[in-house]
Amino acid sequence: MKAFRPGWIPTLVVLALLPGLIALGCWQLGRAAEKRVLLATYAERRAEAPLATVQLLAHEDNAFRRVHLYGRFDAAHSLLLDNRMRDGRAGVELLQPFHDQASGLWLLVNRGWLPWPDRRVPVHFDTPAQALALDASVYVAPGNTFQLHPDPAGGEWPQLLTAVDTVRLWQRLEREGFAQELRLEPGPAAYRLDWPIVAMGPEKHLGYAVQWFALASALVLLYLYFGWHQNKEKRHGHRHSTGSA
Question: Is the peptide bond before 158 cis (omega within 30 degrees of 0)?
Answer without folding.
Answer: yes
